[in-house]
Amino acid sequence: DNATARPASKPVTLTVTVSNLTPGVAYNLYRYASMAAVPDARFNASAAQAVKKTAFTITSGTTYTTSVTIASSDVAVFRAVPASAS
Protein backbone atom coordinates (compact mmCIF):
# COMPACT_ATOMS: atom_id res chain seq x y z
CA ASP A 1 0.00 0.00 0.00
CA ASN A 2 1.50 3.33 -1.07
CA ALA A 3 -0.98 5.49 0.82
CA THR A 4 0.25 8.98 1.54
CA ALA A 5 -2.46 9.79 4.07
CA ARG A 6 -1.52 9.71 7.72
CA PRO A 7 -3.25 6.86 9.57
CA ALA A 8 -5.98 7.71 12.05
CA SER A 9 -4.87 8.46 15.58
CA LYS A 10 -5.25 5.63 18.08
CA PRO A 11 -4.84 5.38 21.85
CA VAL A 12 -1.32 4.42 22.95
CA THR A 13 -0.45 3.47 26.52
CA LEU A 14 2.94 4.71 27.68
CA THR A 15 4.86 3.39 30.67
CA VAL A 16 6.68 6.19 32.48
CA THR A 17 9.48 5.19 34.87
CA VAL A 18 11.31 7.71 37.04
CA SER A 19 14.52 6.42 38.62
CA ASN A 20 17.15 7.54 41.17
CA LEU A 21 14.47 8.71 43.62
CA THR A 22 14.73 8.97 47.39
CA PRO A 23 12.01 7.32 49.52
CA GLY A 24 9.98 9.78 51.61
CA VAL A 25 10.71 12.73 49.32
CA ALA A 26 7.72 14.32 47.55
CA TYR A 27 8.07 14.69 43.77
CA ASN A 28 6.06 16.25 40.95
CA LEU A 29 5.84 14.52 37.57
CA TYR A 30 5.02 17.00 34.82
CA ARG A 31 3.72 16.10 31.36
CA TYR A 32 4.21 18.59 28.54
CA ALA A 33 2.62 18.60 25.08
CA SER A 34 5.84 19.62 23.29
CA MET A 35 9.58 19.97 23.85
CA ALA A 36 9.17 23.74 23.50
CA ALA A 37 6.83 23.79 26.52
CA VAL A 38 9.44 22.26 28.87
CA PRO A 39 11.05 25.01 30.95
CA ASP A 40 14.84 25.19 31.28
CA ALA A 41 14.59 25.78 35.04
CA ARG A 42 12.07 26.51 37.83
CA PHE A 43 9.87 23.55 36.90
CA ASN A 44 7.53 23.87 39.89
CA ALA A 45 7.23 27.63 39.46
CA SER A 46 6.40 27.02 35.78
CA ALA A 47 3.84 24.27 36.46
CA ALA A 48 1.23 26.07 34.33
CA GLN A 49 3.22 25.14 31.21
CA ALA A 50 2.50 21.45 31.84
CA VAL A 51 -0.68 19.77 30.64
CA LYS A 52 -0.69 17.54 33.73
CA LYS A 53 0.98 17.40 37.14
CA THR A 54 1.11 14.23 39.23
CA ALA A 55 2.37 14.46 42.80
CA PHE A 56 3.90 11.29 44.23
CA THR A 57 6.10 10.01 47.05
CA ILE A 58 7.68 6.56 47.06
CA THR A 59 8.00 4.69 50.35
CA SER A 60 10.69 2.21 49.30
CA GLY A 61 13.01 1.50 46.40
CA THR A 62 14.28 4.14 44.01
CA THR A 63 11.77 4.10 41.12
CA TYR A 64 8.22 5.25 40.38
CA THR A 65 6.27 3.79 37.47
CA THR A 66 2.92 4.86 36.05
CA SER A 67 0.97 4.38 32.82
CA VAL A 68 -0.46 7.15 30.68
CA THR A 69 -2.71 6.77 27.64
CA ILE A 70 -2.39 9.40 24.92
CA ALA A 71 -3.36 9.62 21.25
CA SER A 72 -0.72 8.34 18.85
CA SER A 73 -0.79 11.76 17.19
CA ASP A 74 0.15 13.52 20.45
CA VAL A 75 3.53 14.26 21.98
CA ALA A 76 4.24 13.61 25.65
CA VAL A 77 7.38 14.88 27.37
CA PHE A 78 7.87 14.08 31.06
CA ARG A 79 9.97 15.69 33.77
CA ALA A 80 10.07 14.74 37.46
CA VAL A 81 11.42 17.13 40.09
CA PRO A 82 11.37 17.28 43.88
CA ALA A 83 8.26 19.14 45.07
CA SER A 84 10.54 21.32 47.22
CA ALA A 85 12.45 22.64 44.17
CA SER A 86 11.64 26.06 42.75
Question: Would you write up a description of this structure?
Answer:
This protein is an all-beta fold and 86 residues long. The protein has one domain. 0% of the residues lie in helices and 41% in strands. It has strands at 11-18, 26-32, 52-57, 64-71, 77-82. The strands form two sheets. The chain has a three-stranded antiparallel β-sheet with strand order 3-2-5, with no helix packed on it. The chain has a two-stranded antiparallel ribbon with strand order 1-4. It is flat and about 55 Å long. The chain starts with 10 loop residues before the first strand and ends with a strand. The mean pLDDT is 95.
Features of this protein?
two-stranded antiparallel sheet; 3-stranded antiparallel β-sheet
Give a brief description.
The protein has strands at 11-18, 26-32, 52-57, 64-71, 77-82.
Low-confidence stretches: none
Count of helices?
0
- Helix-strand sequence: EEEEE
Assembly state of the chains shown: single chain
Rg: 16 Å
Topology:
Elements: E1 11-18, E2 26-32, E3 52-57, E4 64-71, E5 77-82
Antiparallel strand pairs: 1-4, 2-3, 2-5
